Amino acid sequence: MEHAFERVAQGVASWAGRPAAFVLALATILVWIVSGPVFGWSDTWQLVINTGTTIVTFLMVFLIQNAQNRDASAIQAKLDELIRATHSARNEFIGIEHLTQRELEALRSVLEREFGSESHHHEAIERLLGRL
User: Fold this and answer.
1) Crossing angle, helix 2-16 and helix 43-85, to 10 degrees?
2) Please, is 49 exposed, middle or buried when counting C-beta atoms within 10 Å of its C-beta (0-12, 13-18, 19+)?
3) Treating both helix axes as pointing N-terminal to C-terminal, what angle do 19-34 and 2-16 enclose, rounded to 10 degrees?
4) Least C-beta-crowded within 10 Å: which of 2, 16, 43, 74?
5) Element (H, E) at 22
6) Rounded to whole angstroms, how far apart are CA atoms 12 and 107?
């Protein structure tokens, strides 16, 4: 079942990010708006779009989260491989994604104190931002 969900989630997430999905959603809304006078702008007419959008939103949350989890895991595996392949890299950084937010912030603080105080790094970043 997990494999089937992965395939469906990946397919739907891929399709949902395309222009055709936006056009379909826009067309649905336009049809709903145009049908308003036919149904006398009734509460049921309004309930149809409210219920439909709620259901789609609810399901898309799970699909988007699945896609983000998969992408994040793939990126993390790639970064871990780069750390392993680089002889001067610190292997201690492999797996830091499992640290708590507080631990990650402390690690970032230590790294900034260790390497971030050099003014030429900040000047290079300012030059880069100036070109944008």
Assistant:
1) 110
2) middle
3) 70
4) 2
5) helix 19-34
6) 37
Q: Note the pLDDT of residue 119.
A: 56
The residue behind tokens 């390497």 is 115
Instruction: Indicate the residue type of 63.
Output: L
Q: How far apart are CA 24 and CA 64, in angstroms?
A: 19
| Residue stretches of the chain with pLDDT short of 50 | none
Q: Is the dihedral of CA 87, 90, 91, 97 positive or negative?
A: negative
User: Residue 1 and residue 48: Cα distance in Å, rounded?
Assistant: 31
Count other C-beta atoms under 10 Å from residue 96's C-beta: 14
Residue the block writes with tokens 């309930």: 47
Measured CA to CA, the distance from residue 63 to residue 6 in angstroms comes to 9
